[in-house]
């Protein structure tokens, strides 16, 4: 199994921008607890999980928006019977998931400027 944090570091070093989703809080029953993480890459690959199913699909959509817009957001997921119509999951609780942009490392960003254009 790939170590999640090493893979995020590798992606940053290779110049990739990633949307990182982190479960902030859970009330009641939920598929994952606070601290669970998932990364969504621009090419659609996903690393980790925040719970699966429709709620995770909602977080993935928010992650794609974060990748496009560059602005972080909090996703509120209602996993109760009342929220089941929206999420398709009836765990009984709620979750808050923070989605943020993880940009390439500064070293990678600076490499773009190491060689002047036209070899000058």
Q: What brief labels describe this structure?
A:
about 120 residues, alpha+beta, 5-stranded antiparallel β-sheet, 4 helices, 5 strands, about 30% helix, about 30% strand, elongated
List the helices and strands and how they pair.
Elements: H1 4-13, E1 18-27, E2 37-41, E3 46-48, H2 53-69, E4 73-78, H3 84-87, E5 94-102, H4 106-111
Antiparallel strand pairs: 1-2, 1-5, 2-3, 4-5
Describe the protein.
A hairpin with a 4-residue loop joins strand 2 (about 35-40) and strand 3 (about 45-50). This protein has a five-stranded antiparallel sheet with strand order 3-2-1-5-4, with helices on both faces. The protein has one domain (about 5-110). It contains four helices and five strands. About 30% of the residues lie in helices and about 30% in strands. It has about 120 residues and is α+β, with helices and mostly antiparallel strands. The model has no long low-confidence stretch (mean pLDDT about 85).
């Amino acid at each position: 199994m790939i170590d999640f944090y090493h893979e995020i570091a590798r992606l940053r070093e290779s110049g990739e921008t990633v949307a990182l989703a982190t479960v902030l809080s859970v009330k009641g029953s939920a598929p994952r607890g606070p601290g669970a993480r998932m990364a969504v890459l621009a090419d659609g690959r996903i690393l980790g999980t925040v719970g699966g199913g429709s709620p995770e699909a909602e977080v993935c959509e928010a992650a794609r928006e974060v990748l496009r817009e560059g602005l972080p957001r909090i996703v509120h997921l209602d996993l109760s019977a009342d929220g089941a119509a929206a999420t398709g999951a009836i765990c009984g609780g709620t979750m808050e998931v923070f989605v943020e942009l993880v940009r390439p490392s500064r070293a990678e960003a600076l490499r773009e400027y190491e060689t002047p254009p036209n070899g000058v």
